[in-house]
Amino acid sequence: MTDVRLPYFDYLLSELNRRNPTIEKSFGRHVHWGYWAAPRTATTDDDDFAQAAEQLTLELCQLAQITEGDTILDAGCGFGGTIASLNERFQRLRLVGLNIDPRQLARASQQVQPLHQNSVEFRHGDACDLPFASDTFHRLLAVECIFHFPSREDFFREAARVLTSGGTLTLSDFVPSPWFRPICLLGAIRSSKCLNSIGRWDVSSTLGEYRRLARRAGLVPGTACNITANTLPTYRYLQHILARDLPRDHGASAFRHLLGLTRSLSAMGLLNYYLLSFSKP
């Protein structure tokens, strides 16, 4: 297994080490988009975005139907924000965070200590080759990370293997409309990884493709929630951060370009943000 270090995590970790208060507030816990129940009321300051990022986690965990006593794997756990949120709100959970970047795991281990008779563990590993026995987890989560994985099909196969009967996989992802998918496959979006601003970013799986992936892996497609409108204020916040804090070098310019393109595609309904759930019979 080769460690993967994503360029934007290089920046976040550097700023966290410098104790940048904006980055600490906004990305020290969660590293994903925000969710606003009433997007027009978003102020998109640091506190507002941090609360919205927490709310996205709450929305995804609610869809996962987590209950006390569950054993939960968070694949691509980042800095442990989802694990921390569950640890604070539930009792008697076995919580396992998995990541391929040891630096992210080191911060997560420092940030999250067990509460409420929960157990917390962070493991180094590959989400496409999970280092766990079969039939281990009641719930598997993947919050805004699957587009970095080398193979969705391998991840789904591994998810089906490690889930118990009746267990669920719940994830968030950018999902193209069927009309836009051919452009993704031609490389208009996937080639953006060459800009070296966020690393691999494959957003070519439509809802139909996700359902086919699930069935091939032995999972049953469940709820699909299009929450694009609730996430759009994220772009305004990130653009503010970019203008204020990031240096005007090639990497930052590439990220600005990608962010603007993604915002336009999302606003037009061509690239949507979904919460998806699947179950194991």
Q: How do the strands and helices of this protein lay out in sequence?
A:
Blueprint: H1 7-17, H2 21-27, H3 46-64, E1 71-75, H4 81-89, E2 94-99, H5 102-111, E3 119-124, E4 137-143, H6 152-162, E5 163-176, H7 181-186, H8 207-217, E6 220-226, H9 228-231, H10 233-245, H11 250-267, E7 271-279
Helix pairs in contact: 2-3, 3-4, 6-8, 10-11
Could you walk me through the main structural features you see in this protein, from its secondary elements to its overall organization?
This protein is of the alpha/beta class. It has one domain (7-279): Rossmann fold, CATH 3.40.50.150. 42% of the residues lie in helices and 19% in strands. It has 11 helices and 7 strands. The protein has a 7-stranded mixed β-sheet with strand order 3-2-1-4-5-7-6. Helix 6 (152-162) links the parallel strand 4 (137-143) and strand 5. Helix 2 runs parallel beside helix 3 and helix 3 crosses helix 4 (81-89). The radius of gyration is 18 Å and the shape is globular. The two termini are 31 Å apart. The relative contact order is 0.15. Residues 188-195 have low confidence and may be disordered.
